[in-house]
DNA sequence: GCTTGACCTAGAGTTAACTATACCCCTTAA
DNA sequence: TTAAGGGGTATAGTTAACTCTAGGTCAAGC
């Protein structure tokens, strides 16, 4: 079976070896195996699992909670419901983040317009007294 | 002119007074005025400006860079280009974040499906050997 | 056989953005 | 007139997720 060194995996996942070792210390990868002389050996499936870990991180999940998920994975079918719940919950938080970003983007685009027109006019004054209490 | 206390503004922006004072210490609100006995007095326009600060924070901009923007605002029309550039750059990074979230969401939704079907089958085994090296 | 470079651990240091504490002042209501 | 409550400062502590350093092992190549 093909295996990979920690630095290869780091490159593949766009992480540092420090980060991978940190994740290991936090018990996020109990599945990786070792050579007899104490070097980690990553399998293809390990890399897939780490991509899920990265996905959960990207969704804003703290590492301690990701650890719960990893533990449940080792526990087999009895934890299927918990694992399902985790991803449904993640789906909701990511949806909320998307909404937040959308609002943020609206304000930013408004400001782009504000400064574009101000630049064209040579002064910000054209926006003064436009709307009282507005965001302009 | 109507003014607001720090705790009122905190409520309005959904921040703590600690956070507002921290922002002040970081020179993110040089525009707020003070009573003779040393209390901050927020105007309506100050709250609008702080909403922009919060928007920049939400876009992932570090506070030290937001400070640059605030400084430029005080410098008048000579900094219009810099300020425009900042928002155009923010627009690009938020766009990138949206892309990232989209990818994250795809994996999460795939996992929701994975666990939903596993739950229905009563076992995760139905997904074994489906695709070698796949994300399932 | 010696150097180089990849791997290892333990543990210290970093960073940003708060968050809290200690202690002070001022106003207001009982 | 005193106690509560809201304001202020300075400074210390927290947190998460790295990031780095020191010091060590081991295999390969010259």
Tell me what you see in this structure:
Two copies of one chain form a homodimer. Chain A has 136 residues and is mainly alpha-helical. Chain A is 64% helix and 6% strand. Chain A contains five helices and three strands. Chain A has helices at residues 6-13, 17-25, 44-58, 63-75, 80-121; strands at residues 3-4, 33-34, 40-43. Chain A is elongated. Chain A starts with a strand and ends in a 15-residue tail after the last helix. Chains A and B meet through helix 3 and helix 5 of A and helix 3 and helix 5 of B. The structure holds a DNA duplex (30 and 30 nucleotides).
List unreliable stretches of 5+ residues of chain A.
none
How many alpha or pi helices of chain A?
5
Oligomer: homodimer
The tally of strands of chain A reads 3
Mean pLDDT of chain A: 94
What share of the residues of chain A lie within helices? 55-70%
Distance between the termini of chain A: 61 Å
Q: Largest sheet of chain A at a glance? A: 3 strands, antiparallel
Q: Strand sequence of the main sheet of chain A, in spatial order? A: 1-3-2
Find the biggest chain interface: A-B, 41 and 41 residues
**Class of secondary structure makeup of chain A:** mainly alpha
Keyword list:
136 residues; three-stranded antiparallel β-sheet; DNA-binding; mainly alpha; homodimer
Can you describe this structure in just a few lines?
With 136 residues, chain A is mainly α. The first copy, chain A, has helices at residues 6-13, 17-25, 44-58, 63-75, 80-121, and strands spanning 3-4, 33-34, 40-43.
């Amino acid at each position: 079976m093909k295996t990979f060194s920690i630095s290869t995996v780091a490159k593949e996942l766009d992480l540092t070896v420090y980060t991978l070792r940190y994740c290991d210390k936090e018990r996020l990868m109990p599945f990786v195996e070792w050579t007899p002389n104490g070097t980690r050996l990553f399998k293809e499936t390990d890399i897939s699992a780490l991509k899920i870990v990265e996905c959960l991180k990207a969704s804003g999940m703290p590492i301690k909670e990701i650890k719960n998920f990893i533990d449940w994975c080792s526990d087999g079918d009895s934890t299927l419901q918990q694992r399902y719940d985790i991803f449904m919950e993640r789906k909701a938080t990511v949806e909320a983040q998307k909404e937040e970003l959308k609002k943020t983007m609206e304000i930013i685009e408004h400001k782009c317009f504000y400064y574009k027109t101000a630049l064209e006019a040579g002064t910000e004054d054209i926006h003064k007294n436009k709307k009282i209490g507005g965001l302009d």
